[in-house]
Design goal:
The protein has 122 residues and is mainly α. The protein is 87% helix and 0% strand. Helix 1 crosses helix 2 (23-31) and helix 3 runs antiparallel to helix 4.
Length: 122
Amino acid sequence: MALSDEEQKLLDQLEAALAAEDPKLASALRGTTHRWERRRAILAGLGFLVGLAALIGGMQVHPAISVVGFVVMLAAAVLGVTAWQQSADAAEGQGAGGRAGNHSEFLGRMDERWRRNTDDGA
């Protein structure tokens, strides 16, 4: 769900206030969003390449090496897909650097403020 211009402005103001009030916390929340998922995705890519090399090389040396290479490729693919899904879930769940559980509470409070402001103005 997209935010309106007024909601986006208010969100930006809240982010600025957080950064001014506690810069260490704001930096920590901003910087560690997807670090572990990225590392897992990179490791999965490398593991897939190693498995592919073992699969192809095993054809020349011994069939058991090819089987091990296939298993490594499969495990790396599963790891990569789960890292990608978790990264997407984290990006979706993180509004202004908050946690996913607080996201709905935050939106509820913002909705209530919006209703109060529009009711007072009308």
